[in-house]
Amino acid sequence: MKRVVLSILAVVLLCAPAISAQELTGREILDQLNFSTILSGSGSAQITMITENAKGAQRSYSLQVYVRMDESEGDAQFLEYLAPADVRGTKFLSLRPKDGENQMWLYLPALGRERRIAAHMTGDSFMGTDFTYDEIGGNFGYEDDYAAERLPDKVEQGLDCYVLELTAAGPGALYPKVRMWVWKEEMVPVKMEFYASGDTLAKTLTLSRFQNVSGELIPHYVVMANNIQGTRTILELAQVSQEEVDPEIFTVRNLRR
Questions:
Q1: Which end of the chain, N or C, is surrounded by fewer C-beta atoms within 10 Å?
Q2: Is 13 contained in some domain?
Q3: What does pTM read for this prediction?
Q4: What is the pLDDT of residue 22?
């Protein structure tokens, strides 16, 4: 009898994590995500960005990006084009304070000044890419603007994933519906589908080549595909650093330098 009891106990203990995971709701999974921006944590990275048109023709850009994530002050991102020559010096600043409205500016060297990105423009294409200003600025937080429903689990990129269907439930929702594949082991998304009205698949984001950088899991290969237009934007991260970034970088003054 003692052996039977011990056997039953062992089965219960072995099954407990699976049962717990099975009971997670869509909201609980969304709240546990270790992801709010492509470049997690605070630091910097060099990025190769490739834009691809519907005919497959590509153009390559070199960028430098700096990120600050601060629980007390809020998040910030500064991006600068390094090449090619016709866009060199173009800069983008995104501020997401803990309290208050998000703010974005774009500096164009040809104009010699920065311009504020109005709230109604944050869903527009950023510099001809398949990312919106909101997305390139790191706004991948969906907790406040979407209701989450858990769908049947699936395998994506060879990884066991939770699947969430997010339905717009707040004024900040850019898409009526978002579907998300979340890597169970690391609680980060590896694929996202963005739907337009009429349940039309508008864009697909895939994240891969995850690497651990100073304790942060960061995707080093990111693709945003526009399913309607047939275009793609590819981001390849290199020289990722988690070293502290000078706060002066995340200022409007720095745009003009």
A1: N
A2: no
A3: 0.86
A4: 61
